[in-house]
Amino acid sequence: MKNLILCLLVLQYINASAQDSVKLSGRILNSISDSILISYNDNLIAYYPKEYYAIADKNGNFSITFPVPHGRYVQTELLHDRKLAEMLLQPGDSLVLYVDAARFDSTIQFSGRGSAIENFIAKHSLALGRMNQYSVRVKTAINKEPAEFIKNIEQEKKAELDFLSKNKTGLPVSFIKYWTAYYKYYNYFFIQQYPQVHEIIRVRKYTDTIPKGNFDVLKQMPLSFNDSLLQVPSYLLYLTGVFDIQLKASGYGYLSKDRDKSDAVQDSVSKLANNLLPNKSLEYFLAQNIYGRARNQELARTESQFTSFKKRWPQSEYLPVLGKQVAIMERLAPGKPAPDFEIVTHDGKLMHLSDLKGKVVYLTFWAGWCKQCIGEMTNTHKTTDLMKDKPLEFVYVSINTDTAGDQKIINKFKFDGLFNNVAGVWNAREILDYGVQSLPAYFLIDEDGNIALQNPPSPVHYTELILAIEKLFK
User: Fold this and answer.
1) In principle, which of 133, 234, 249, 379 could form an S-S bond with 215, CB 3.0–4.6 Å?
2) Are residues 378 and 339 in contact, defined by beta-carbon separation less than 8 angstroms?
3) Residue 214 belongs to what domain range?
4) Tell me, what DSSP letter sits at residue 223?
5) 58, 198: one domain
6) What letter would DSSP give residue 457?
7) Confidence band (pLDDT; 50, 70, 90) for 21?
8) Which has the higher per-residue pLDDT, 46 or 182?
9) How far apart are CA 149 and CA 147, in angstroms?
């Protein structure tokens, strides 16, 4: 009997392990490289990409088994040299891929468990582009007036759902629901973005003064919540901003200069969430709220929110990421030493950030592919011109692997400062030390080499930036 129970436990363990992993094998004809990279983000709160490598033999054959998050579809990329295949994986998938690298996109073919979804996505990539390209298409409509904007994004959604309708044979019902929700909630997300972004495009500069008429588009965005959609990325985007935009439409301002009033608005957002969201969506919303605002509010407030969250959801899957973020905020609190790293000077000499003690340092994390980074960085001269006689240094750290491309941008816009590229992209030690999750990211370091501000004004808001810097000179 004991042996029988032991066998059953072992079988349960094996089955559970299989359900939380994916097997991918196959052959790449005319392979460009012997390396296949599998990449995905393993959690819903933050961007911590997981990467797994498979090595192909001389004939292009490969096989890899890798873990995936439990109980949800996982957007995944397969990269072979510069060839990319998009996949939507589920635990338990066992896929066989055949593709000719010389005609990569048009020859992708999957067989095995889960292949119906992957073949659908491959066909979709040829017809309408990759899933994440939808946001690029929809974004172009934001410069239009409200009625035309809604018409355009509805047309884009209809094209996606028509493609699904024509090619849904053999697809699981759960996938059809996922795919439908994906595009519906992406439209809702861009409706949230419309009021402010449309105005920024119209006046050609940053503004948080939004005409009341811009909020008319919100009538097309219902309050529609469903815990089963938490695996859908666009639903998470929708959740993150739905209450903020409702309050803005009601006339609530976000007074970042007045911390007490800003905190009061956020408390109102949390109250709305508690009243309207189902339990799992609420758990995600509050976790994301703690994580996303940790750099913009007092550490004590973040710690208090985290303590309350742990009491309410002691087994939450988000606790490890939240705990890590709180620890980073504690390590980067004002007055704590700025994490040190190496910098290569213009003449090729090696130095460290700590060598800049005696100067105020404005630290920027960026990349050449980040258009917002470049747009904001072009305003840096407004600060440097007015403070050229001050002990101030601008340090730019890029996560871009295209260092030559970065250099062209630096030369084109004549950025002045110290520049560095880090190895490891999002997993680089510098990125992890500073808790960078999105670009651009800014830090202000005082003359003693200590963190002064985790989220100082961007170069666009140069008046506020200059005032913040002036306070740090001894």
Assistant:
1) 249
2) no
3) 133-331
4) -
5) no
6) P
7) very high
8) 182
9) 5
